[in-house]
Predict the structure of EFMT1 methyltransferase.
Amino acid sequence: KMDDDDDDIPQLSSRTLAALQEFYLEQQHREGMKTSQGFNQYSIGSIEEYWQLSQFWYSDETASCLAKEAVLAAGKGGRIACISAPSVYQKLKEQDVEDFSVCILEYDRRFSVYGEEFVFYDYNHPLDLRENLLPHSFDIVIADPPYLSEECLQKTAETIKYLTKGKILLCTGAVMEEQAAKYLGVKMCKFIPQHSRNLANEFRCYVNYASGLD
C-alpha cells in the first residue's frame, strides 16, 4: 500500500527543519551581500569553502603574510602561481600593486569568475595544463595540495617543478615533512599558518629558499 511506503520515508524533526530554514536564509543573505554595491570579489570567503573538495581557507592574517612573502620572493615584475591556494591568490589581488602577475590553478570551477587568471587544474593530471603555462615561467609557485597523502603531494610536486624557475612555497600538514623534502627539497619554516576554521591536523609552511617566514 502507498501508506506503508510513506511510513518508510524519513521525516525531519521540527528542530532540524528550523535549522535548515535558518541556514538557507543566511545563505540568501550572503548572496545578497555579494550582489550589493561595494562587494569585493577577491575577499577571502567571497567564494565559500566546499568541504567535499577539502577546502579550508586561511585566516586573513595568514593569507596576507603568504601573499607578502610571494611578492617579495617573486621580485619586481615577477610571476606568481597559486596551486590550490585560492585565499593567497585573493589576497594578492586585493593589493593595489601592478608590479607582479598572478594566476590561480584550481579544480573548483567557481574560481573561473577570475577570468583568464583562472586555470582549471586536476592534480591527477599534473602536466595537463593550458598551453600558455610554459615550463619554468613563474618566479615562485605557492601550493597547498588538497589532501594529506603522498600520492597527492607527489603529483602536485610534478606541476610545481614544471612551473617554477626555482622558488617553492608549500603549505601542507606537518606530517608531510619527510615527503615534502623528498619530492620538492623544501624545509619547514618557523611560521605557522592558521585557517579561518581550526583544523585537526597541524599545518606548516615549507620553502627551498631564504624566506621571510623564519
Notes: The chain has two domains: 9-39, 51-207. Residues 14-35 form the longest helix (22 residues). The longest strand covers residues 164-173. The chain is about 35% helix and 20% strand.
